[in-house]
Design goal:
heterotrimer, A alpha/beta (about 325), B mainly alpha (about 290), C alpha/beta (about 325), B: about 290 residues, mainly alpha, C: about 325 residues, alpha/beta, Rossmann fold, 2 domains, eight-stranded mixed beta sheet, four-stranded antiparallel beta sheet, 10 helices, about 25% strand, globular
């Protein structure tokens, strides 16, 4: 296993609501190696986006966040003051979001938005910052970047805006890029191009990538490692190839069986759906969170499942998990 | 099955309503004033118009020289001040409700139509709104009263025809954001009529917004009525109105300040009640989203 | 003999005129151009394309919400514009993408489902509503709930019940599963499959998700910037796509198989721009196999074995 860039243990995020404490992230361990792509996959409300926002330190003020360990590049940040933490995050870890349109300020030129952060954090001169912006725009495939610095975001298409967002995230030369559903708002042909760009950049710059998505197709195309989240916990973590070839958690198996695959799933045949719906994460929830929807559930599932190790540092949190092939 | 249903929305809304202190205090206060206005003939100890020049300017009970029959004293014509205050509530509430009825209907209709249909209809209505905003209310009211003579009816009509702008602006914006929602498309596919879509489908979605504007406007109207009556442009003497009472007490402000302080406080309380209630309702209502 | 198609669009076009401000210059946006489609009774047509391809406009035209500038629309052999609204509504109903926006949040489920009946004078409303709720698998206790209290999947079931309560023959589904989670999406697809079989529905299924279209549709039409660029049976289209755009679309669909890796599309960096329509083929600016003639000469739709394609180079 490669040296880890980010190592978080037992991350918990709780948000007080009108109806009680919403325990949205309930003990997540997150380890990302250098140059690795970890995909965090799950359905809406599973806590995948909150996990990422917690890593970035962008959670709303009233959210409560705790963790036992927060290592970034071997440096323990658990006890660090918030200010130092956020500066480190801003430079070593950057993030892009689902909707590039609302992530860019429509009243500022692209150049200004790209250069502002580095000029402040690295004290670069305007010219130096703009040089770097041109370099980054060129790298993400924006043609004629010098001239386009003076343009406003509305002059660009959706795909180009996401390219600009990526350029802006790379301005500070981060080690880890967090991408939260970066292609969900884009057309499929554009999606393929953006994903390809991310992969190329990753190779060139030695970036680690934390990719959050609900799309198993994207996971298959991008991930080296996959963590499947359900109800605020990681249900299963494995190398991508292992996860798709031999999913062990009943939830992972259900997800994979629920998507129709052209040429594989017989046309018009009923898909195997997972019955019921995602539980609400209000208050304490002892036991396996999936047991109410699970065909394999037994009374043993009423106790908290212990993670069972799998190949290559993977694990699965289920008493009835399919055994890993040796 | 992991599904759970929440109890229906109404009871929950009611419970939340009761937990909101703004609603409780404002609503209670307003209800009290409304009751007083409704039962004025029963509550008022005297005829509010009956003059007794031998008992002019009697002070309220907490001062010396006060008379037990006139709890809050008498005015410069010897009329019972408590009775006049009680009857004055009728004018304030009546004008408030009347004007809002007129202005709300005009403003909401115009705003809905402009926001929903857009295009040239929107342009025309937006122009009317702009034109209206450029009219100074007090001056227009002054001219209208000069033409039509000061009376309660003129006052309500003039204010009603003038104060619809905020309703229009707010509903227009809300309708614009709602008209492209898919449930509207679905209704059109069902062949639902335009009036039905506007008033039965879109309008109920704006209740929170409209409530806020409503409370602001009611307070605004009550104060305007008082101001216009004070200027002699609203309610005609001898009808008791709080604004008029303040105006009439003006000459005695140095020696008998309570003549102004009492109707002034009443006005203050009423406006506060309406605002508290409006704010509270806005917090409580609005579609429940998970 | 050929039966009368359930839906028939012949040469339908719609152009929007967009204007910036009161006196600004106006721009033309060709939303749909010369679109012809036929859907046989009981058949499901998949309508596929990316944003701006005109599929939503086509849906509005089929539902009679938007009058086309040119062309004819026929439902069950009758011209749509000559049809009484009452008849149209009982024949064709939509299900929209976003179950949050498709239901008025201030109405109870029962009254939402009952609304079509009330508008069009149905009798025995209570029984019909109960029947529709049962049909889509909604527990009866939800009748008094508000949409905000339901999950996304349940809301989509309500939207379906509402569309089906008048027993229409045609269902137009505009991305009905796009806003749903994978596991719930499978539930709704299964429901659609079952209902189609039980009720013999004719369906138009609009989606950008090719895997879902492949699973549901008998025939697929692919649209690009307002034009139909290819139409074929689902089998033929997925086995051997002819138009370079269809090929790119298929290649860009990522299967849950890590062995496949990321496709190389060679589409260039240009985006589909509906305002920049020059003389030639609309796809030419992005086409990997473009030739000079493609840029100057518009391509005609020509018939091929199992359908039609709008590209001279397509085999």
């Amino acid at each position: 296993m490669t040296e880890s860039l980010l190592d978080i243990q037992n991350l918990r995020v709780s948000i007080p609501t009108e109806r009680g404490m919403l325990n949205a992230v309930r003990g997540v361990d997150l380890r990302i190696g250098r140059g690795e792509t970890l995909c965090l996959v799950g359905e809406s409300g599973c806590g995948k986006s909150l996990t990422a926002t917690a890593v970035m330190g962008l959670l709303p003020r009233h959210a409560r966040i705790t963790c036992d360990r927060f290592d970034l590049m071997g440096e323990d940040l658990t006890a660090r003051r918030e200010a130092k933490l956020s500066r480190l995050r801003g430079r070593e870890v950057t993030m892009i979001f689902q909707d590039p349109t609302s992530a860019l300020n429509p009243t500022l030129t692209v150049g200004r938005q790209l250069t502002e952060a580095v000029r402040r954090s690295e004290g670069l001169s305007r010219a130096a910052a703009e040089d770097r912006a041109v370099e980054m725009l060129e790298r993400v495939g924006i043609s004629n970047p010098g001239a386009r610095l003076a343009q406003y975001p509305h002059g660009f298409s959706g795909g180009q805006r996401q390219r600009i967002m990526i350029a802006s995230a790379l301005m500070e030369r981060p080690r880890l890029l967090i991408a939260d559903e970066p292609t969900t708002a884009l057309d499929v042909t554009i999606q393929a191009q953006i994903l390809r760009l991310l992969k190329e950049l990753q190779g060139e710059l030695g970036l680690s990538l934390l990719l959050i998505t609900h799309d198993l197709g994207v996971v298959a195309a991008m991930a080296s490692d996959v963590a499947v989240m359900y109800a605020g916990r990681i249900a299963e973590r494995a190398a991508a190839r292992d996860l798709f070839q031999q999913p062990r958690h009943p939830y992972t198996q259900g997800l994979l069986a629920a998507i129709p695959v052209p040429g594989v799933t017989p046309r018009g045949a009923p898909l195997s759906a997972i019955p019921g719906r995602v539980p609400e994460l209000i208050g304490e929830m002892p036991g396996c969170a999936f047991r109410e929807r699970c065909a394999r559930a037994t009374p043993a599932c009423d106790r908290d499942p212990l993670p069972r190790p799998g190949r290559g540092g993977g694990f699965v949190e289920c008493v009835h998990a399919t055994e890993a092939a040796r | 099955m992991a599904e759970r249903t929440s109890p229906a929305r109404r009871p929950r809304a009611l419970r939340r309503l009761c937990r909101n202190s703004g609603v409780l205090i404002g609503g209670g206060l307003l209800a009290l004033i409304v009751l007083i206005a409704l039962f004025a003939p029963l509550l008022a100890p005297h005829d509010p118009l009956a003059q007794d020049l031998t008992r002019r300017l009697l002070p309220p009970f907490w001062q010396e020289r006060s008379v037990p029959e006139h709890l809050l004293g008498t005015d410069h014509l010897g009329r019972d001040y408590l009775s006049r205050l009680i009857y004055g509530a009728r004018v304030s509430l009546g004008v408030g409700a009347g004007v809002i009825l007129v202005s709300g209907s005009i403003g909401i209709t115009l705003g809905l139509v402009a926001g929903y249909f857009g295009g040239w209809i929107d342009m025309v209505i937006s122009f009317i709104i702009t034109a209206r905003l450029s009219l100074p209310i007090v001056l227009v009211a002054l001219a209208a009263v000069a033409l039509g003579g000061a009376s309660l009816t003129t006052l309500v009509t003039v204010l009603g025809l003038l104060l619809w702008d905020r309703f229009a602006v707010v509903t227009r914006a809300a309708a614009q954001s709602l008209r492209h929602r898919e449930f509207i498309l679905g209704l059109r596919a069902l062949g639902a009529g335009k009036a039905r879509i506007l008033f039965l489908e879109i309008l109920p979605n704006m209740q929170a917004t409209i409530l806020v504007v409503l409370s602001l406007e009611v307070a605004n109207v009550i104060l305007l009525e008082a101001a216009l009556s004070f200027l002699g442009l609203g309610v005609r003497p001898p009808t008791p109105s709080w604004g008029l009472m303040i105006s009439e007490g003006r000459d005695n402000i140095l020696f008998d300040p309570w003549l102004i302080a009492l109707p002034g406080s009443a006005l203050c309380l009423l406006v506060l009640a309406v605002n508290l209630l409006g704010d509270g309702l806005r917090d409580v209502t609005g579609p429940v989203q998970r | 003999m050929t039966a009368v198609p359930m839906i028939r669009l012949a040469g339908v076009s719609k152009t929007y005129r967009l204007r910036r401000g009161l006196f600004g210059p106006s721009q033309e946006l060709r939303a749909v151009h010369d679109l012809s489609l036929e859907v046989a009774r009981g058949e499901t047509l998949g309508l596929v394309g990316e944003s701006g391809c005109g599929k939503s406009t086509a849906v509005s035209i089929m539902l009679g919400l938007l009058a086309p500038d040119a062309g004819r629309v026929e439902i069950a052999g009758q011209a749509l514009d000559a049809m009484a609204e009452r008849d149209r509504v009982r024949l064709i109903q939509p299900v929209f993408q976003n179950p949050n926006a498709a239901l008025n949040p201030v109405k109870r489920i029962r009254s939402l489902i009952a609304q079509p009946l009330k508008l069009h004078g149905g009798s025995e409303i209570d029984r019909e509503v109960a029947r529709a709720m049962e049909m889509v698998g909604l527990p009866a206790r939800l009748a008094q709930a508000y949409p905000g209290e339901l999950s996304g999947g349940q809301r989509q079931r309500v939207a379906l019940a509402r569309a089906l309560v008048l027993k229409p023959a045609v269902l137009i589904c505009d991305e009905p599963t796009s806003a749903l989670d994978v596991s719930v999406q499978a539930q709704i697809i299964n429901l659609l499959l079952g209902l189609r079989r039980e009720l013999g529905l004719t369906m138009v299924f609009v989606s950008h998700n090719l895997a879902v279209v492949e699973h549901l549709a008998d025939r697929v039409a692919v649209m690009y910037l307002g034009e139909k660029v290819e139409e074929a049976t689902t089998d033929a289209l997925f086995r051997a796509p002819r138009h370079p755009y269809t090929q790119a679309l298929l290649a860009a669909t990522l299967p849950p198989d890590p062995g496949r890796g990321l496709p190389e599309l060679r589409l260039g960096k240009a985006a589909a721009d509906p305002f920049a329509l020059r003389g030639g083929c609309l796809f030419a600016p992005r086409c990997p196999v473009v030739e000079p003639i493609c840029r100057s000469q518009p391509q005609d739709l020509r018939r091929v074995a199992e359908g039609a394609v709008r590209c001279q180079r397509a085999g």
